[in-house]
TrEMBL record:
It comes from the Bacteria. The keyword Transmembrane applies. It comes from Candidatus Electrothrix marina. The chain crosses the membrane at residues 26-48, 54-73, 80-99, 105-125. The lineage of its organism: Bacteria, Pseudomonadati, Thermodesulfobacteriota, Desulfobulbia, Desulfobulbales. Keywords: Membrane, Transmembrane, Transmembrane helix. This is Uncharacterized protein.
Length: 295
C-alpha cells in the first residue's frame, strides 16, 4: 500500500513537472497567446449575441471543424460524415437562444482546452521519461543522471534543423544512449538523423541505429571526424542504386559482421556498397560478404 502511494506521488510530481515545462515553453514561444485567444473568444461570443444569425453559423462551423479533425486523425470518411450529419441535425433541431449558445460554446471550448492541456501533459511526461531513461543508461552512478539529462537536453535544444518533433528527437537520443555511443557524438548524429529522415522518410530509429553502429566501429577521434564520417555515410546511401529502405534492410542483415569487428569497418562499407551495386538482394548479402572477405 505504501509503495502504491509512493508511485502515485511520483506520478503526480512528474505530471506537475511536465505541466510546468509545457507552460514555460508556451510562454517562451508566445507570451500573450492565452490572453489574445481569450480576448478573441469573448469578442466572438459578444458579437454573436448581437447578431442572432451568427450563433447558428459559428456553431455550424464548429461542427464542421470537429468533423474534419475526426477525418484527419482517423482517416475514416464515413465516421467523419456521420459526425457531421449528427451535429448538423442537432443544431437545426434546436431553437438557438443566447443562453443556449453561451452554454454550448463554453462547454465545447472548456473541453477542447482541457483535452489540449491533458495531451500536452502526457507528451511532456513521455518526453521526461525518455530523457530519464537515456541519462540513467549513460550515467556511471544513478546520482549523475540529472547532470547528464541536462546535457542531453542542451544537445537537442542546440539542434538547428528542428525537423523532428520533440518526442522523435528524444527517441533518437535514447537509441544512441542505449547503443552506448559517446555523448560527444550525439549532436552530429542527431543532425544526420534529422536530415536523412526527411530525405528518405525511413524510420528514425533504424537510421539512428545505423549511424550509431558505424560510429562505434570507426571510433572517430573528434567531432569533426565524426561529421566527416556521417557525410560519407550519407553519400553512400545517396549513391547506391537501391531505395533507402532496401539499403537499411541490407545493412541490418549483415550488421553483426560490423559490430563484431569480423570485417574492418572500411572494408564492410565498401563491401556493402559493392554488393548493392551488383544487384545482390538483401537476403543474400550476408553470405556474399562472408565469401568475399573469407570469414
Amino acid at each position: 500500500m505504501k509503495q502504491d502511494k509512493n508511485g502515485i506521488k511520483q506520478s503526480l510530481n512528474d505530471s506537475f513537472k511536465a505541466l510546468g515545462n509545457v507552460l514555460k515553453e508556451a510562454y517562451a514561444l508566445a507570451p500573450f497567446a492565452v490572453i489574445v485567444l481569450g480576448f478573441i473568444a469573448i469578442t466572438i461570443v459578444w458579437v454573436t449575441l448581437h447578431w442572432g444569425s451568427l450563433m447558428m453559423g459559428t456553431a455550424t462551423l464548429l461542427v464542421v471543424f470537429v468533423s474534419l479533425c475526426i477525418f484527419g486523425s482517423r482517416d475514416n470518411f464515413g465516421e467523419a460524415m456521420l459526425s457531421l450529419i449528427g451535429g448538423l441535425l442537432t443544431l437545426f433541431a434546436l431553437v438557438w437562444t443566447p443562453g443556449r449558445y453561451i452554454t454550448f460554446m463554453a462547454a465545447w471550448i472548456g473541453f477542447a482546452l482541457a483535452a489540449l492541456l491533458i495531451s500536452s501533459i502526457k507528451l511532456a511526461a513521455k518526453n521526461e521519461e525518455i530523457y530519464r531513461m537515456a541519462s540513467l543508461r549513460l550515467a556511471d552512478r544513478p546520482e549523475d543522471h540529472a547532470t547528464i539529462e541536462k546535457k542531453l537536453r542542451e544537445i537537442v535544444t542546440s539542434s538547428k534543423l528542428k525537423m523532428l518533433s520533440p518526442i522523435e528527437r528524444a527517441e533518437v537520443i535514447r537509441v544512441l544512449a542505449f547503443r552506448k555511443l559517446p555523448i560527444r557524438y550525439f549532436g552530429s548524429c542527431l543532425h544526420a538523423v534529422e536530415t536523412l529522415s526527411i530525405i528518405t522518410q525511413c524510420d528514425i530509429k533504424t537510421i539512428a541505429l545505423f549511424f550509431a553502429d558505424v560510429l562505434l566501429s570507426f571510433s572517430p577521434e573528434s567531432e569533426i571526424d565524426a561529421r566527416r564520417l556521417l557525410d560519407t555515410l550519407y553519400d553512400i546511401i545517396k549513391d547506391v542504386p537501391v531505395p533507402p529502405e532496401e539499403f537499411f534492410q541490407s545493412f541490418e542483415s549483415c550488421r553483426r559482421l560490423l559490430v563484431s569487428q569480423t570485417i574492418a569497418p572500411k572494408d564492410f562499407l565498401q563491401g556493402l556498397q559493392s554488393c548493392l551495386e551488383s544487384g545482390i538482394s538483401s537476403n543474400d548479402i550476408y553470405d556474399e560478404m562472408v565469401v568475399q572477405f573469407k570469414v
